[in-house]
Amino acid sequence: MGKGRAMKVFIIAGEPSGDRLGGALMAGLKSLRSDTTFDGIGGTDMAAEGLTSRFDMSELSVMGIAEILPGLRHLLRRIDETAQAGIAEMPDVLIT
After folding, report:
1. CA-to-CA distance for 24 and 17, rounded, in angstroms?
2. I want to staple 10 with a disulfide (CB 3.0 to 4.6 A). Which of 46, 69, 77, 91 is the partner?
3. Distance CA 46, CA 64 (A)
4. How far apart are CA 38 and CA 19, in angstroms?
């Protein structure tokens, strides 16, 4: 992170409590460094702090075998998509 370059953060939340924590963390990071930019997956709290989620975080919020199995291919595709985006963005920090 060179001087004069924005700090890039890739942040991922998959459920409402993570979104609340992520939003608070984003607000704190912006108070320390106003040029911080965010990319990743989140909900309304993180969106309020400037994140445009790559897709709705509810797609990652699945629990139990009965809920996971029917959408396993889609879930795995979203996980791969997110991992590839995190690599491609070359963030200064990754927060999961």
Report:
1. 11
2. 91
3. 26
4. 13
